[in-house]
């Protein structure tokens, strides 16, 4: 139901991760908000384990 | 497991309640703990002469000539490498030093006292910009200026501050943030406020008109004269909040131009280090990219304290000088709220509706959000003997926060 109506209304896009996706939408005339996000500890497994030990 | 959030509340409260005052000027040999004739203090984590970067080597050469321990740069280099000279970080002696951070026995030192904690911290007087010892220069004019600071400026300021009793530095910093300073790369407003506060006491204690006039002119012309007062204030405040069991708050960020290091309250005085990055620089005319040295100096104590790059949204006038935009400045400060334990109750940013500056860097937030502290800084030439090449922007290396986080988890996640 929601999906069926998705493209019939104004798109409100929030992009997380690679900012090229957001830039591509903007170049196509849409508005998109970019969220600056990267994996915790930059994806470093040892450090992620330390974060986990600390309950984070 | 220790209550980390409670420990951090205590650390942040101690930091916010710190009340630094300028109380005296004294020669390093008389006031800096452990200071001696053959000891040279430097910025950043521990480093040997062999691993020292160019500007720090240059400043050591200058310091040895200034102290009369060597007659030429060649003799100074030989002496520095001989083992007769001891090197130690400023931070191990309740001291901070900008850029190369070289402090030696005869230098007049700013004495700052944190009234709340009862502890003191020290910093040298600022020499101005360009070709100066802290940027690695050691030519005869640099040494001559240092001698003048020892013989004229130091005694003039010493008599004046002793007459004044003490001057509230926190109050000056709070005002300066409302006047376009961020208190690391721009301390022009704070310098003028301090100048206005101390000038009457300089005149009141005047013994020699020519010398007094020289000192007044020097202080008026030096837009960085407050930096030493700001850094010693930050050091005295953060020292009071160090060694709090269970706290993940950063208490030191410092660079020696080779290594970049931090200390964390709950991990005591242990250094966590990594390679110092090369800042993004807006160069002075006549210099090129290849001239740029790695990030250097204890002045990142200002960001640790919750101003400097953390408060860069307060200083639109400086952002162009360091090669950024007003929008970048605001977004950088907003990022720093993401990794801070709280907001300052005294230091405010007018452009952010007088929001308190982001204060108390939490290594847990830095690592989990992969968001490093942001530094705006002076930049030295990579070679000894040249001096400042510009000013720039630099992200702290994530590596040091990751190392600290792993050690913190090993100690406290039981």
Give an overview of the whole structure:
The complex is a heterodimer of chains A (about 55) and B (about 425). In chain A, strand 1 (about 15), helix 2 (about 20-25) and strand 2 form a beta-alpha-beta unit. Chain A has one domain. Chain A is built from 3 helices and 2 strands. Helices cover about 40% and strands about 15% of the residues of chain A. Chain B is an alpha+beta fold. Chain B is built from 14 helices and 15 strands. In chain B, the strands form 5 sheets. Chain B has a 4-stranded antiparallel beta sheet with strand order 5-4-1-6. Chain B has a 4-stranded antiparallel beta sheet with strand order 9-8-7-11, with helices on both faces. In chain B, helix 5 (about 140-165) packs across helix 8 and helix 7 runs antiparallel to helix 8 (about 210-220). Chains A and B meet through helix 3 of A and helix 13 and helix 14 of B.
């Amino acid at each position: 139901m929601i999906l069926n109506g998705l493209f019939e209304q104004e798109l409100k896009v929030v992009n997380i991760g690679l900012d090229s996706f957001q830039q591509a939408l903007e170049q196509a005339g849409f508005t998109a908000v970019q969220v600056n996000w990267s994996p915790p500890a930059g994806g470093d497994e040892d450090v992620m384990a330390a974060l986990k030990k600390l309950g984070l | 497991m220790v209550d980390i959030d409670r420990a951090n509340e205590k650390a942040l409260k101690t930091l916010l309640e710190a009340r630094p005052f300028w109380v005296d000027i004294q020669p390093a040999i008389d006031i800096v703990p452990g200071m001696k004739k053959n000891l040279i203090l430097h910025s950043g984590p521990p480093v040997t002469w062999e691993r020292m970067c160019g500007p720090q080597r240059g400043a050591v050469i200058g310091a040895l000539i200034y102290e009369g321990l060597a007659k030429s740069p060649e003799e100074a280099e030989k002496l520095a490498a001989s083992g007769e000279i001891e090197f130690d970080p400023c931070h191990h002696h309740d001291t901070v030093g900008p850029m190369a951070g070289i402090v030696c026995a005869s230098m007049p030192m700013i004495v700052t006292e944190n009234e709340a904690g009862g502890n003191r911290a020290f910093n040298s007087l600022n020499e101005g910009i360009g070709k100066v010892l802290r940027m690695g220069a050691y030519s005869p004019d640099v040494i001559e200026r240092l001698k003048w600071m020892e013989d004229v400026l130091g005694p003039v300021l010493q008599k004046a501050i002793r007459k004044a009793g003490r001057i509230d530095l926190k109050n000056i910093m709070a005002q300066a943030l409302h006047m376009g300073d961020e208190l690391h790369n721009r301390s022009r407003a704070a310098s003028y406020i301090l100048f206005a506060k101390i000038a009457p006491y300089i005149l009141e204690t005047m013994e020699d008109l020519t010398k007094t006039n020289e000192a007044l002119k020097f202080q008026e012309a030096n837009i960085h004269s407050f930096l030493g007062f700001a850094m010693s204030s930050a050091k005295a405040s953060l020292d009071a909040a160090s060694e709090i069991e269970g706290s993940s708050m950063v208490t030191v960020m410092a660079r020696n131009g080779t290594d970049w290091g931090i200390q964390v309250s709950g991990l005591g005085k242990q250094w966590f280090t990594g390679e110092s990055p090369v800042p993004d620089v807006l160069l002075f005319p006549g210099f090129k990219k290849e001239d740029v040295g790695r990030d250097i100096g204890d002045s990142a104590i200002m960001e640790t304290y919750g101003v400097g790059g953390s408060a860069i949204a307060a200083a639109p006038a400086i952002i162009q000088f360091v090669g950024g935009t007003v929008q970048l400045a605001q977004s950088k400060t907003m990022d720093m709220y993401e990794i801070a334990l709280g907001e300052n109750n005294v230091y405010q940013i007018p452009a952010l509706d007088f929001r308190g500056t982001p204060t108390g860097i939490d290594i847990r937030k830095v690592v989990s959000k992969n968001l490093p502290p942001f530094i705006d800084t002076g930049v030295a030439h990579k070679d000894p003997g040249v001096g400042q090449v510009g000013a720039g922007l630099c992200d702290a290396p994530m590596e040091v926060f990751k190392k600290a986080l792993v050690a913190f988890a090993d100690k406290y996640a039981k």
